[in-house]
Sequence to fold (211 residues):
Amino acid sequence: MDASVAPLFRHVEEPTAAAVARPSREDAEAAVRTLIAWAGDDPGREGLIDTPKRVVRAYEELFGGYREDAAAFLERTFSETGGYDDMVLVRDISFHSHCEHHMVPFFGRAHVAYVPIDRVVGLSKIARIVDAFARRLQTQEHLTAQIVSTLDEVLKPRGVAVLIEAEHMCMTMRGVQKAGASTMTTQFTGVFRDDPAEQARFMTLLRQGRG
Ligand SMILES: Nc1nc2c(ncn2[C@@H]2O[C@H](COP(=O)(O)OP(=O)(O)OP(=O)(O)O)[C@@H](O)[C@H]2O)c(=O)[nH]1
Ligand SMILES: [Zn+2]
Fold:
């Protein structure tokens, strides 16, 4: 199939969401020229002539998550854990995303924990899942929920905990203009939801070693 008209993955864990036909690269570049003119500049001037091509290439990278199947990162698991059955926490996973309301960046760090049953997953795959969902148009809440539900549904662990802290450029560069305001979202399943002590341990480990 011609990649330029391949349907987009909307959200891989939501197969009922409508897939939209992908416009051609030329259409996307023309749209960038329109936005440059709308902003008030001349898309034909020397410094801007190649910008639509660059923007479209950058979009392929920044929104590459639509073409990734986050659940597939968890296909490979390891069972030789020496009986390890406690929390695995990957802290400070940096990410960049774009808010779906203004299409401007929000960025920060995700902290992801799970309590395995028998099998563990490669640590880098947790960071890959964060990126697969972050590289889409998002809200911070949806991003948090998607990371949790993918780990929960595929690994079926004893519990999953995700905390995301982020700064939204739509609140900093424009609109209400509150530089430095940060937003935190959390979602818990299994033991982290049902056992306050496990949830507290997750929060304590997040703070460990910080001033
Ligand atoms: N809940 C949530 N809201 C977000 C997120 N990213 C941006 N927003 C908010 O989305 C809202 C959109 O509000 P609207 O009133 O429709 O748009 P607007 O007129 O541009 O709003 P202002 O940003 O207040 O100027 C704003 O309050 C943003 O702060 C997010 O990840 N989660
Ligand atoms: Zn926004």
